[in-house]
Amino acid sequence: MSSEYLPREDCRVTVCKLPPHVKGLCTVKGTDELIFINEDLSEEAKMAAFAHELRHLRRGDLYSEEPLEEIEKE
Ligand SMILES: [Zn+2]
After folding, report:
1. Residues 13-46: pLDDT tens digits?
2. Which residues does residue 37 pair with via DSSP β-bridges, in sequence order?
């Protein structure tokens, strides 16, 4: 599992094991924005999942600190 802080996006991305149907998750802990990406995705799919999760954070889709599970279709 690797975790990386991205200054440009001001969020922390962690690539880790997630259920097969979950591409990514995003959540907010205090002032930290966190994105989790399924490690089993291809590099391209990881980038797409990251962009998707970042959009949720930027749109303010998160109103609680419960993780938003990524099961939507693009
Ligand atoms: Zn989504």
Report:
1. 999 999 998 999 999 888 889 999 999 999 999 9
2. 15, 24
Question: Which residues partner with 35 through β-bridges?
Answer: 13, 26
pLDDT at 52: 92
Q: How far is CA 19 from CA 16, 22, 23, 31, 71, in A?
A: 10, 5, 8, 26, 10
Q: Is 52 exposed, middle or buried (CB count within 10 Å of its CB: 0-12, 13-18, 19+)?
A: middle
CA of 64 from ligand 1 middle (Å) equals 15
How far apart are the CA of 23 and the centre of ligand 1, in A? Answer: 9
User: Global pTM?
Assistant: 0.82
